[in-house]
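Dear Dr. V.,

Thank you for agreeing to look over these. As mentioned in my earlier message, I'm a first-year student in the group and I'm still getting used to reading structure tokens, so any feedback on how I've presented them would be very welcome. I ran two proteins. I've put each sequence directly above its structure. The first is here:
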Amino acid sequence: MEDSTDRIKQLVADGVRDKVYPGAVWATGNATGIKARGTAGVLDPAEPDIPMRPDTVFDVASLTKILAVWSTVGALWEDGSFPLDEPLDTFWPEATGRPLGQVTARHLLTHTAGVPLRAQLKNLYGTDPAAIRAGVLHEALHRPPGEAVEYTDRAALILGYLAEHLSGRRLDQLAHTHIWQPLGMAHTRFGPLLPELTVRCAPTELDEDTGRHLKGTAHDFSARLLGGVCGIAGTFSVLDDLARFLRYMLDPTTAPAAPGFGPSWVEESLSVQTGTLEPVRGLFWHPAPGTDPADRTYVHYGFTGTGMWISPKRGTWAVLLTNKLYYTRDREPLTRIRNAFRSVVFN
């Protein structure tokens, strides 16, 4: 364990040296808690005397799809109010008579629904949230459901809308009440952040409108367009909160109170759900690159430079949080670090 910790420290530090990201926070652990953790680099290159800290708040981007959508969908599924395999038009009036009506929630969770690949919400539907919702739910399909695996942000946006419809609550309220509060995730929330949290937040990309790096406001344009709350992105979190979430997935007895989803949803999600289609997918989670799906080491990434891995087979989880988007949108340098990080942790 000591050798692997040293290798992770060096790997993460090399990313700072090579300007893959300004700074990073990482941890590995199991159901009993964090086994190793560390930080590297600085919060903001404009303030080189302020180091990255264990309690740095990150814009986790598409980890929202797991923390807010996958988890709340699981809660609704486990209480019997969220059908996975019924066509949406059989229980969702907004989908009735529309192309989306033939899609199932499982199609959306496996990215096989055939919905359009790009969000492009403002270009297609304008800036009114109601018009955006109607446009997304009434749009023609890109291809027939179940034909191909194609990652699209729209899957999570639609599932977020559906969870709101079935629960009668906004997604942020649903996630807070059913997931984050029971798990003790006290620093996880949708933005924009209040000033006291913004000061601890890792800045992301330069905002051309203001000439400043985004900090405490979601990088994702769709999230900003929709007021900060949507299924695509918009959540901010800290390392310890993500550790609580992943520990619970491995052992439900670790939670201070039971959230809405449980072992049945975890088992369903961290198993292959796409048959012979490639690339292989679970429910929103997917097997980590370079691993055999049979090893059941699953991962989800965030565009800002975040990622979390979990392996029920090994009883291990890992988190790597960076603000790589501060420097570049080029994915390749961080991809190499992520794959090496996963290899060390789950070797």
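The second protein is here, in the same arrangement:
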Amino acid sequence: MSEVYAARRTRLRERCNAGGSAAALVSRPANVRYLAGAAPHGAVLLLGRTEDLLVCSGPPDDRPTEGRPDDSLQLRALPGPGGDPAVAATGLAAEQGAESLATEDHHLTVVRHRAMRSVAPTLRLTDLGQAVEQLRVVKDEEEISCLRIGAEIADQALGELLESILVGRTERHLALELERRLVDHGADGPAFPTSVGTGPNSGRRGHRPTDRRVEEGDFLSVCLGATYRGYRCEIGRTFVIGTSPADWQIELYDLVFAAQRAGREALAPGAACRDVDRATRQALDSAGYAENLPALTGHGVGLEIDEDPQLAPAAMGKLDACVPVTVEPGVHLPGRGGVRIDDTLVVRPEADGGPELLTITTKELLAL
């Protein structure tokens, strides 16, 4: 992987040079890991004029889940506690003879930025902007492989839960069990706090599990994700508990399923992000659920669970091949509950079979 990280840093350096900066300081943890292979707590990456340095507050953690720093990088640990790697790296950039340094202003605090200026007052600090985030949008096959394994782990954890007795158990208990199963199957941990909603809580985006117990006839909606080697994916499904679904449950489920399928089928290289969102929500809008819909119907995933691109009505830009995204429409009816269906897919051209579905747990409306 060393050559992969080196190539990523080269692409970033080319962008910086085009913008007039000979050096760059990367501080956002996901961006540091993308370029360096690991992001020890508080570490920053300096792309210097003479060498690249991973500047840490102490020796890097050697836990596998934290990643391993690229062997070709020089590591520089601060001599004592209490120092700021970003400030130290700024001084090192000045020592290397850099006249300007591009920094991630969207991640740095004002206080930190002032401290960096004070250690190298002659160094011109410019804004790197979202350059690294933009590089991260299109994934290589190694990154997609990590997402694929994470999706398999999430599918396994969810499948095992569905085989257990659910009536009488609390949302909180089920969420904790799912997260334990993720780790048991090899995940670094959950990709985000697991959401389990029952009855009137079902279908609610980002619902925090409560002590409400599962009851016969409930909708049960689950949204979970696994992190594998730093890469995060997600899956969401909705089921009915213990009995045949009511007519209103079947109708609502079929509607959300049709919307989700339309969104999945719209994924293609060159497709406008807003058009994928439009395809997903069109059926729900026409059925009168426009006010019950979330602000977006999908987003990118990777080293963070919510990355670009955003699939939303006002989203700009088009999809590229090898971009992993979620398609996750849902409808929540206050006091009754709702449905959410969520998959992680990779955009692929039609010649390669179209969008690759990573999360494969059935989307049939099961009565558990």
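From my reading of the second output: The mean pLDDT is 94. The first helix runs from residue 2 to 18. Does that match how you would interpret it?

Kind regards,
E.
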